[in-house]
Amino acid sequence: MKDVKVFMCRALILLLSAGAVFAGGGGQKSGSVSSPTSDSLREKNLVTLDVIMMASAGKEGSHEVEDAINAYLLEKLNVKIKLTFITYGNYVQQTNLLLSAGQGVDILPVYMTPLFTVANNGQVIPLDDLLAKYGQGIVEQMGKEYIDCGRINNVLYGLPTGRDLASAYGFEMRKDICDKYGIDYANITTLDQLHDALTIVHKNEPNLVCVVPSNGELVRNWGWDPLGDMVTPIGVLMDKGRSWEVVNLFETSFYKDFVTTMRKWYLEGLIMQDGISNSESVGVMMGAGRAFGGFMNLKPYFNVQETTNYGTEIVVSEIVPSFAVTSYVIMNAWGIASSSKHPEAAMKLLNLMYTDPTLVNLMIYGLEGKHYVKAGPASNGQSIIKYPPGVDGINTKYRPSGGWMWGNQFVGHVWEGNPPDYWDVTRKFNETALKSNAFGFSWDSSDVKNQITACTNVMGKYHKALMCGAVDPETTLPRFIQELKAAGIDDIIKDKQEKLNAWRKAAGK
Asked: Residues 49, 17: contact at Cβ < 8 Å?
């Protein structure tokens, strides 16, 4: 009997101890077994994501901005980021190395490397399921038509950003020089008119570079749909994509006329003589007082953006009116690296980057009071902002350059100089731009990979040099075309045409 009583007492003690362990409420007594705190659970489940971003300059203050972002994301998603900025000139090489190594990157803007290349290489993952589960805010902000531009063989690999998704083309230049010599930049609409203006500047400012090829590139597009890679237009639709015939751009009279004109300008001293090897942007050189201007793709109030970025007032002349092609939409598209261990968290972060004004403003503009101050209301519920007193585009530690590469500018602040409805104006610019016949078509190049590599190598020898006027097109262009033929450009054009025709038929166009 005594043994039974001892057993019952011990059992009662165990039951009471268990009650202390599993009781979720009220004050625990000293010495009781406590449940894991929410902080310890949060720390245990904390995810850190590597985010890669491009910057031209002015990101010395990124660490304190990263700290502010992480404080915010900890509460919103229990996520932290490690933010790495790569300079423009090194972006393609460094991101390719990271993707190939399979480490150091979870999400990144796929920029200057064709989306189909990283998709076919298995370096980024399909996004359809993740977008359906965690990214509906992205779809609501961007719209299905633009989201679908990120598809390769009907599989989504990249998310276009909230920015100008159409483009006009023209010339940006310093306003002080225009005013000094009475240049009517607003009414320059042809290359001949631009030539006249450049001649005036060159005659009166001989030490000023009139036309700068930014980072060795004079013009990326002048009115064609490249049907794939914006940088290497191998097989295009001419006339802003209003044709359905894929042609060899370099065999067209259009291309010959353009490079012949640039050769004339080069020989007249209008184009930077060592332009192909130039590693600086035209904006940096204008800001430093060493250049007059350069060719650019344009959008609404582009001059305000450039004035803000480079600290000297910039004006523009539009020569090729706006149009929209798939290649431009996905020239910059966010993807999730195939090496990411946290794709769900990555998509949740991307969803916030497209929908959350607080996060968007931190990423693009930095810290209020230090990198910018508010100056009035904007139509999207955010603010007109400007630099704080004593801070400008040169000495700021977090310059708002590359904002168009982040998720979605449309839900963020508006920089001073732009109208309060600037983002509404930009959305309308996208909606009203002429769209190529092939808008939404993303070409899968996997069947002609070897030919693309060979043709890209040939282009590297000739295209930029011809566009910059550095070589004589009369002798160089025929050699360029001949080598492209030998490298298989006709195979590429045939492949593009067949796949475009199939897409057109399926789309009922």
From this structure: no
| CATH 3.40.190.10 given to domain 167-328+437-507 | yes
From 325, 405, 335, select the one nearest 165 (Cα to Cα). 325
Distance of CA 261 to the CA centre of its chain: 30
> What is the third-level CATH fold of 44-164+330-393?
D-Maltodextrin-Binding Protein; domain 2 (3.40.190)
List pLDDT tens digits, range 114-146. 898 899 899 999 999 999 999 999 999 999 999
pLDDT band of 365, cuts 50, 70, 90? very high
Interatomic CA distance for residues 204 and 196, integer angstroms: 13
Domain boundaries, the chain: 44-164+330-393, 167-328+437-507
Q: Which pTM was predicted?
A: 0.82
Domains 44-164+330-393 and 167-328+437-507 share a fold: yes
The DSSP result for 433-466, as a single string, is SEEPTTTT-----GGGHHHHHHHHHHHHHHHHHH
Q: Of the spans 46-60, 165-179, 300-314, which averages the highest pLDDT?
A: 165-179
